[in-house]
């Protein structure tokens, strides 16, 4: 089987393969870019695997960066693009179900491909475009199925994150997980407790954003993986409801987490903090979840308090819960609010102080009260009117 390497991402990286081979080593394109190219999907970050050791790679290329040298990865800089070149390796002993105790560099491509997670991720491509398929990855790709390389039970025992990767790929690629591989996930699900929350959450977010979210979430439930994720463990009913909603792909992490949070009994902020998500995401989802909770009858003040970003997210999310929801109407209502921030009031705290109000909690309360009145269209946003109302 040949692969077309005229795609610019591969084509531009071909000189690297040639240079490594000219120095007497083997080099291949491997991993997700090969899989995605064969599926006709857009590719991102082309990874290269080589028999050359990191020190040897550094001698071949002028510009390199030690991005992950302890794992055998060197970044080669070529005309402004960085390519990760990783030495063939085996990950011999895993004692804690998550990280190899040490990696051993090897000269054999087969040894390297053996330690990869799924057969469709264990394909390699030579510089002439020949696909090296040692584990039936091409057949599995054609059948759209995820099969662990080698013994599934052993592979999940070595690295429990692979189970989350399986459900992530199921959703991302719309592949089915082969029966033995799925059974091994169900059997080893408790090992997920050994994996860092960040890595679990990262795979779960990608699951939420996939084209076959429903299938991914369903397997996440059926295999019991959900029982080992903080805040989701107690949410089987909510997760089932989530899986029953429209399967249309979600556009971003904010809308994905908002839709999920509205289906669960847990506090969105707590869940996302426990899952170690970024503060900006947490705040966005909290605001959007609060607003979605008030739909379809949200007040102007609820729209105002949510803010532009959360309103946009709510407009994306609500149609999943209520197919006839008028999302454009919601956005138009937000646009039409008299003000969009307390700063848009025509008087400030300073103005109130000048007019005789003492600085303190009352000042804040008064400004908030004026804001509420203006947002509700109860008074006009005019300085004299606002001043009068402030002291009324
Ligand atoms: P994507 O880039 O779309 O996330 P990918 O398959 O490239 O998909 P990466 O995490 O970039 O995923 O990993 C690159 C390759 O490294 C994988 O295709 C797989 O061969 C291997 N790999 C990554 N993580 C693991 C793991 N936990 N266990 C075994 N092999 C892995
Ligand atoms: Mg990748």
TrEMBL record:
Keywords: ATP-binding, Magnesium, Metal-binding, Nucleotide-binding, Nucleotidyltransferase, RNA repair, RNA-binding, Transferase, tRNA processing
The keyword Metal-binding belongs to this UniProt entry's keyword annotation: yes
Domain Poly A polymerase head residues, every copy: 27-146
InterPro entries listed in its UniProt record: Bact_CCA-adding_enz_type3_sf, CCA-adding_enz_C, CCA-adding_enz_firmicutes, NT_sf, PolA_pol_head_dom, PolyA_RNA-bd
Enzyme class: transferase
tRNA nucleotidyltransferase/poly(A) polymerase RNA and SrmB- binding domain segment(s): 174-233
UniProt binding sites for ATP: 32, 35, 116, 159, 162, 165, 168
Binding site for CTP: 32, 35, 116, 159, 162, 165, 168
Assigned EC number: 2.7.7.72
UniProt superkingdom: Bacteria
Family in the record: Belongs to the tRNA nucleotidyltransferase/poly(A) polymerase family. Bacterial CCA-adding enzyme type 3 subfamily.
Stated role: Catalyzes the addition and repair of the essential 3'-terminal CCA sequence in tRNAs without using a nucleic acid template. Adds these three nucleotides in the order of C, C, and A to the tRNA nucleotide-73, using CTP and ATP as substrates and producing inorganic pyrophosphate. tRNA 3'-terminal CCA addition is required both for tRNA processing and repair. Also involved in tRNA surveillance by mediating tandem CCA addition to generate a CCACCA at the 3' terminus of unstable tRNAs. While stable tRNAs receive only 3'-terminal CCA, unstable tRNAs are marked with CCACCA and rapidly degraded.
Comment field (misc): A single active site specifically recognizes both ATP and CTP and is responsible for their addition.
Subunit (UniProt): Homodimer.
Name of the protein described by the UniProt record: CCA-adding enzyme
Source organism of the structure: Lacticaseibacillus mingshuiensis
Gene label: cca
């Amino acid at each position: 089987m040949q692969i077309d390497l005229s795609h610019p991402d591969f084509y531009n990286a071909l000189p690297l393969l040639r240079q490594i081979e000219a120095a007497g080593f083997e080099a291949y394109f491997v991993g997700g870019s090969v899989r995605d190219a064969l599926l006709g999907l857009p590719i991102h970050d082309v990874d290269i695997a080589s028999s050359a050791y990191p020190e040897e790679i550094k001698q071949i290329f002028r510009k390199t960066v030690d991005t992950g040298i302890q794992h055998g990865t060197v970044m080669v800089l070529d005309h402004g693009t960085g390519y990760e070149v990783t030495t063939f390796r085996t990950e011999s002993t895993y004692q804690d179900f998550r990280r190899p105790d040490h990696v051993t560099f090897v000269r054999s491509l087969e040894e390297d491909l053996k330690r990869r997670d799924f057969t469709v991720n264990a394909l390699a491509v030579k510089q002439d475009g020949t696909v090296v398929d040692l584990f039936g990855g091409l057949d599995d790709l054609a059948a759209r199925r995820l099969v662990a390389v080698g013994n599934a039970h052993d592979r999940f025992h070595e690295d429990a994150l692979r189970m989350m990767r399986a459900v992530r790929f199921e959703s991302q690629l719309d592949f089915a997980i082969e029966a033995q591989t799925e059974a091994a996930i169900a059997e080893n699900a408790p090992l997920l407790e050994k994996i860092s929350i960040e890595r679990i959450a990262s795979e779960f977010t990608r699951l939420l954003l996939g084209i076959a979210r429903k299938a991914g979430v369903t397997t996440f439930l059926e295999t019991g993986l959900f029982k080992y994720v903080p805040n989701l463990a107690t949410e089987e009913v909510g997760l089932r409801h989530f899986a029953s909603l429209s399967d249309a792909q979600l556009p971003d992490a904010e809308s994905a987490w908002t839709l999920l949070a509205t289906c669960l009994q847990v506090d969105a902020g707590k869940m996302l903090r426990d899952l170690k998500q970024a503060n900006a995401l947490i705040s966005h989802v909290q605001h959007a979840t609060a607003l979605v909770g008030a739909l379809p009858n949200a007040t102007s003040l609820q729209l105002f308090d949510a803010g532009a970003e959360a309103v946009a997210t709510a407009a994306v999310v609500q149609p999943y819960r209520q197919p006839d929801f008028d999302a454009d109407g919601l956005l138009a209502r937000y646009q039409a609010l008299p003000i969009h921030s307390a700063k848009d009031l025509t008087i400030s705290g300073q103005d109130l102080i000048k007019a005789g109000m003492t600085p303190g909690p009352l000042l804040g309360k008064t400004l908030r009260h004026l804001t509420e009145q203006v947002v509700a269209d109860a008074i006009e946003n005019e300085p004299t009117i606002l001043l009068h109302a402030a002291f009324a």
